[in-house]
Amino acid sequence: MIEINEYIKLTVGLFAITIPVAASAVYLGLTKNYSQTEKLKTIGITALLYFLILTMFTFLGESILNFFSISIEAFKVAGGAILFLSALQLAGDKGSNSKTEDSEQGSSPMAIAVVPLAMPMLIGPGSISTVVIYTHMHPSLLHELLMVGVILTNTLIIMLMFWLTNHFGKLLSDNVTSVINRLMGLIIASMAVEFLLTGSVVHIQNHWMPQ
């Protein structure tokens, strides 16, 4: 079993990948005309979807890969590439996406909770690949339950951030969002390099080096 500090590292990494700061800024723009009840409903639905979908990939992710005959090493390389692209996108971030906010305003809490908040802002290829790869590292029920604990922790943090946005959203300027997102981009880039290196090394050992 990996050490507890590895779960802490995963919690921070998954937090960075989901980009909750940017999602909070979009949430603020989309719900500015909502009642308090509608805002809380949006938060609840978004958090529930985040938890359920990533938990599903915790238990079924490797089976899905096997169904499509995809090795975990290849998935690591692909996931690392996706994470690196996400990191580059965050490094060049200019703030919240006003086009998304304009196009989605007036939608119901359920609609904006599903798209764009839960998907693709919080749940995307980066977060899914991270969950699948880390789950594969130690195939045991205890490890899977600890992975669910990591996802639950991030779910609660996301709920708290969205709730705080209702009260302190005016402090979430584009400049503040940009600085935080670039810091998150650095964390994601580090994880991407680790995935790319480990996936490539294992693939080379398995397919190119003599046994």
TrEMBL record:
<protein>
    <recommendedName>
        <fullName>UPF0056 membrane protein</fullName>
    </recommendedName>
</protein>
<feature type="transmembrane region" description="Helical">
    <location>
        <begin position="7"/>
        <end position="30"/>
    </location>
</feature>
<dbReference type="GO" id="GO:0005886">
    <property type="term" value="C:plasma membrane"/>
</dbReference>
<feature type="transmembrane region" description="Helical">
    <location>
        <begin position="184"/>
        <end position="204"/>
    </location>
</feature>
<keyword id="KW-1133">Transmembrane helix</keyword>
<feature type="transmembrane region" description="Helical">
    <location>
        <begin position="110"/>
        <end position="133"/>
    </location>
</feature>
<feature type="transmembrane region" description="Helical">
    <location>
        <begin position="42"/>
        <end position="60"/>
    </location>
</feature>
<dbReference type="InterPro" id="IPR002771">
    <property type="entry name" value="Multi_antbiot-R_MarC"/>
</dbReference>
<dbReference type="Pfam" id="PF01914">
    <property type="entry name" value="MarC"/>
</dbReference>
<feature type="transmembrane region" description="Helical">
    <location>
        <begin position="67"/>
        <end position="90"/>
    </location>
</feature>
<feature type="transmembrane region" description="Helical">
    <location>
        <begin position="145"/>
        <end position="164"/>
    </location>
</feature>
<keyword id="KW-0472">Membrane</keyword>
<keyword id="KW-1003">Cell membrane</keyword>
<keyword id="KW-0812">Transmembrane</keyword>
<comment type="similarity">
    <text>Belongs to the UPF0056 (MarC) family.</text>
</comment>
